[in-house]
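**Folding the chain**
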Amino acid sequence: MKKITFVILSVLIVSCGKKKEEVSTAQEVSQTSVKASENNGEFDITKIPVSDKDLGVFPYLNPPENYCYGVCSNWKGAVEQKDIKDFDKEYFAVNGKLIPVEGKALKVVIEKNRSKDPVAFNSLLVEKAYEKAILDLGGVQVNNVSVAKEEIDRIGKENLMSATYGNSIDFNGLDRIKTYVIRTNSKEVWIQFSLLNEESGKITILEKAAAEVPKVEKITSSQMKKDINESGKAVLNINFDNNKATLTADGKIVADEILKLLNENPELKLSIEGHTDNNGTKEHNKKLSLDRATTIYTYLTDKGIKSDRLQTKGFGQDNPLAANDSDLNKAKNRRVELVKI
């Protein structure tokens, strides 16, 4: 299957007159679509023409020639699976209004590869390169106007910045947000970018989809005991605050089950061993995993479990259960193991 790659200058010079017609048509279609959707108070995807083009494979668009996604020294010419989230959310601008869309997403920085071309980042050329590629795939532009500060306040910067649900929104350039939609018979693909001339840009490519919510079974002391008897350890996915060692409310429920296990089996001694995925540095993850194991240790000893029955270890990202190549596998690797001593 194919991916789209751009050659900026040749496209612009050879087809300048034709391109003006394409851009004008796209803007007229997008304005009609947005106005029709506003009558219903929300965006109406059915107003977007269906494309019969073959999009290729996600994320469908590579950066323009002599540009790269992320740090150029690490760019290998194609998006790596680790940079794609199986399920995420982004706020996309439609006629100046922000609407949330969820699905498979790539959120990256666009940089100029100065080792191949020393000329500065050119936001106009990059914008036109993406525009041509998207229009060639049957895409429609749905935002080319400024997003009001009141709209940012309505959503909240916490959602847009801290949760990175506004990755492709430049808060210092709310008039530079460009949004497109490609609709096929089976897909709805959103593309949004903000570009800063002579610097860099950010882009989000998202294929809308519903979440495949995994089944969650309650972790019980009896199941822990069964696992320990059968394999010598129990593997637990305990919830901590993001990138911290503090237990969430759900995490405390699991810790209470560990407490129950130890109280019901007074002869049992455990090594509490923390593990992480590969987000962050190895040193950070090693410390985080030990800190999380220590949190469980402290929780149990504070409730009466003798310290000589417990020990802690932190392995960081060194012993994954699965390859860290998807959100689901990373969730498996973020765990605490109770190993019988």
